Amino acid sequence: MTAPQAWLLLLAPLLLLVVRYSLVAKRARKRRRQQLDHDLPPSPPALPILGHLHLLGSLPHVSLSTLAVKHGYDLMLLRLGALPVIVVTSPRAAEAVLRTHDHVFASRPHSLVAEVVLYGPSNVGFSPYGEHWRQIRRLFTTHLLSAKKVRSFRLAREEEVGMVMVHIREAAATGTAVDMSELINWFMNDLVCRTVMGKSFRSEGRNKLLQKLIADTSPLLAGFNVEEFFPFLARLGVLSKVVRAKFERVRQRWDDLLDRLIQEHESKSASDPKDGDDFVHVLLSVREEYELTKDHMKAVLLDVFFAGIDTSASVLDCAMAELLRRPSVMAKLQTELRSSVPEGQGFVSEADLTDAAYLRAVIKESLRLHPAAPLLVPHFSMASCDVDGYLIPAGVRVLINVWAMGRDARFWEDPLEFMPERFIDGGSATGVDFKGNDFQFLPFGSGRRMCGGLNLALATMELLLANLVYCFDWEMPEGKGRHDIDMSEAFGVVVHRKEKLLLVPKLHV
Ligand code: HEM
C-alpha cells in the first residue's frame, strides 16, 4: 500500500466522525433556535449536581412558594438533582395545565416506590394515564364514590359519629382533655374500614397496624426521595438492591394485611354469596368485569386507605384548631348549628345540614389555608406543550402549588386570616368554590385527575365537625391559651399538623 493510500485509510474514520459531529451540532443548533422562539420557563440559580435540591426544606410546598415569590416566577423550571421539575404557582398557569392541556398533563411520573408499594403502580392515584387508570377510576366512581353510594353510607357515618360523641361525653363528665388529632384519625380510620370491609379493625387491634402502615408509607409516596432525584443511583447494582429492599419490606407488611382481608372475604362469599355489600365484596364481584388481578385489588384498597383517611382527618384537625384560635368564628358556627337542630334531638343529623352555609364556609376556609395535598399528586407531561408562553418539554413532572395559590394576596383579601365570611354574604370570595373551576382554590385538584372522593369527604367532614361544635363547648387544657396552638406542619403524601390538639370538652347538650 502506498503512503497516500495508508493516510487515506487512517483519515477516513476521522472524516466520518467530523461529518457525524457536524450533523449532530447542526441539529442541536436548530433545536436551540426553536427553543429561543419558545423559551423554557425561568430557573433560579442552581448548583452543579444538586441543581435546586439544596433549596428544598422539610416542607417543600413552603420552600417552593418562597422561591417563586423571591424570583417572581409563577411558572419555574427546577432541577432537583437530575430530575427536571416544573412548579406552577399561578391560577393562570394552573388552568393551562389542568384544563386547557389536561390531556397532555393527566399522567403521573414513574417512581420506584409507587412501582413496588402500589403494585405496579396499579392503583388510581399513581397509575400513568391510560386504559388501566380509566377502568379503575370508573370502578371507583361507580361502586364507591357515586352520589347514591355516598348517601348509602349515611347510617354508618351517623353511627360512627355517635360513638365519637359518647367517648367525648365521658371525657366531659370527668373534665379530661381529649387528644382531638388522635380521635379524629380513629374516627376516619373506623369509618373507612367499615365502608371498605363492613366492620372496623378496632376489635382485632388491626386499626393500629393500619394507622402505623399509613404513617410509614405516606412520607415515601410524597415523591421527595433521593432515588427519584438521582435515578441512575437507584439503577446501580448494590444501591438498587438496598432501595428496592426497603420498599419491598413495606409492601410485605401491606401484603400480610391485605391478603388476609381478601381471603377472609373470599371464604365468606363462598359460604354465603349474598353476604356483604362492602367494598371488598364489590371488588370480588366485579373482578371479571374489570379484569382485576389480586394485586389490582390490593392497589385499589390502598387508594381508599390513603385517600380516604388522612386527607379528611388532616382537614378536620386544622378546622378544629382554627376554631379554637378564633372564638368569634366558633361562636358564630355554634349559633348557626344550635338554631337549626330541632330542640331535644341532642345531635346533628345530615338532614339538619341543608342550610348550614357557615359550616361549609368554615370547611372551605380550612381547605384554603391547609390543603391536605399542598402540591396535589405530581402530574406528568406526555408531550411538549406551550404554557403561559413557555415550552414545557415532554416527560417532566409538574407540581401545582395549591398551598401557595390559596395564600396569595393577589387573589385573596387578608390571605393569612382565617375568615370563613369571605365565602358568603357578599364576601370577597363569594361564589369561589373548590370544584375545580376556580384555579386559585384547588384543594381537590381539577381536570381528569381531580379527586373523585370530594362528595364522600364533604359529607363525612360536615357531619363530624357539626356534632363536635354543636354538642360541646371547647376549652384549652389548664395552663394553655389559644395562642399556644401550634399550626406547624409535617410533610407526607398528606400534610398534617405536627402537634396533637389537646382540648377539654364541656357538654352543651
Ligand atoms: C378532604 C379530603 C380530601 C382531599 C383534600 C383530597 C384531595 C385530593 C387531591 C389533591 C388529589 C390529587 C388531584 C390531582 O393530582 O390533580 C386527590 C386524588 C384522589 N382522591 Fe382525594 N381527597 C380527599 C378525600 C378523598 C376520599 C374520601 C377519597 C375516596 C375514598 C378520595 C379519592 C381520591 C382518588 C381515587 C384520587 C386519585 C384521582 C386520580 O389520580 O385519578 N379522596 N384527592
Automatic annotation (TrEMBL):
One of its GO terms (molecular function) is iron ion binding. It holds the Pfam family p450. Its cofactor is heme. One of its GO terms (cellular component) is membrane. Heme binds at C451. Keywords: Heme, Iron, Membrane, Metal-binding, Monooxygenase, Oxidoreductase, Transmembrane, Transmembrane helix. InterPro entries: Cyt_P450 (IPR001128), Cyt_P450_E_grp-I (IPR002401), Cyt_P450_sf (IPR036396). It comes from the Eukaryota. Pathway: Secondary metabolite biosynthesis. It is found in: Membrane. The keyword tRNA processing does not apply. Belongs to the cytochrome P450 family. This is Uncharacterized protein. It comes from Eleusine coracana subsp. coracana.
